[in-house]
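Risk mitigation, structural track. In case the binding assays with nicotinamide-adenine-dinucleotide fail to produce interpretable data, a predicted complex structure has been prepared as a fallback.
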Amino acid sequence: MITLGIIGCGDVAFRTYFPGIERLADRARVAAVFDPATERAERAAARFPGARVRATLEELLADDGIRGVLNLTPAPFHRAVNEQALRAGRDVFSEKPLTGTVAEGRALIALAEERGRVLLCAPAVMATRRFRWLKTLIGDGAFGRPTLATGQMANLGPAGWADYTGDPAVFYTKQVGPLLDTGVYVLHAITGLLGPAKRVQALGGVAIPERTVTIPSRAGETIRVEANDQMLLHLDFGGVTFAHVLSSFAVPASQAPALEVHGETGSISLALSDWYDGDGPTDLYRPGAPGAGPDGWQRAVRPPDTREGGRNLIGSGPEHFVDVLLGTAEPVLTAEHALHVLEIIHAATTSASEGRVEELETRFGG
Ligand SMILES: NC(=O)c1ccc[n+]([C@@H]2O[C@H](COP(=O)([O-])OP(=O)(O)OC[C@H]3O[C@@H](n4cnc5c(N)ncnc54)[C@H](O)[C@@H]3O)[C@@H](O)[C@H]2O)c1
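Fallback model:
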């Protein structure tokens, strides 16, 4: 049984992590929770029998009864909390991003290695059943050599997300922005399927500099947009394999797929509407393959072994963490992969402001 500590009991904790952890009752239990907002910590603890509310982060981390922690704080706190947890001897699963900068990410990975601790990072795209299956299909040559991926995460951001319970302002600061908030999902998917990229070039800017919050509890508040809310990235993987990604908080609505991957002989298409379903349906273009229609498409294919109900993409993170700690899964959501995506995001922002192609240094295996 893996004992967990929860750090940060906000929107994502209640929305997806807690339901995800409750499904792991045979493998994990929440032993302690901490949030500076005590009411939220108490509400969180009430969901898990035996869980204790800790008054400070230090108190939670000092508890040797806790094996691993889930860092669900807002992005600007991630590095400090992750580092403190590793130094206290805890294994760590961090919400994205791992750290603020690439240099901090490298230092954090070195610290985890030095202390012999597990350090994993969201988003959990590559741990879902759907993306494990797609990676195997691509690796088996089901679509020929991959040549191109296109991804899009484009909306107006959390200022207009009616049932969001956190403060949406942080998502428009330079420490977050659309690339770190949602573009990160398609970047993990594309690099998870195609491997590390070698170069990036980007265009971007602030298209809509001020937002009026429409979340009912905060209606009328205004937010100044500091991070580029429009980012267009091109990635070069070498060997004439490319990707194009649109990451935006300045698109009112879109019907474009979240992700398409094209090989020499076939294509994969994922709708945005099913993006967060870890078992979600996928359209495959494989003319002549068993199950393909006369137009070559096999529509709404589910990964094999689909369990009833499907699994949430975000909820797959804590499950993977627990299985890695139990030794029943190999780490997929590695800090090295998260660091590579973080480097892409920072290099893209530099490319957009400097007007040049940026070489990427980080690599990851798997
Ligand atoms: N909300 C979502 O659906 C969603 C989805 C995917 C990822 N995420 C990521 O999850 C993280 C949290 O987002 P959220 O939407 O839950 O934000 P939130 O503001 O709703 O919740 C964050 C919580 O962390 C607490 N907190 C702040 N500083 C802390 C500290 N030093 N130690 C412990 N707790 C602290 C806050 O009091 C708050 O309760 C972010 O990195 C976000 O990008 C959120």
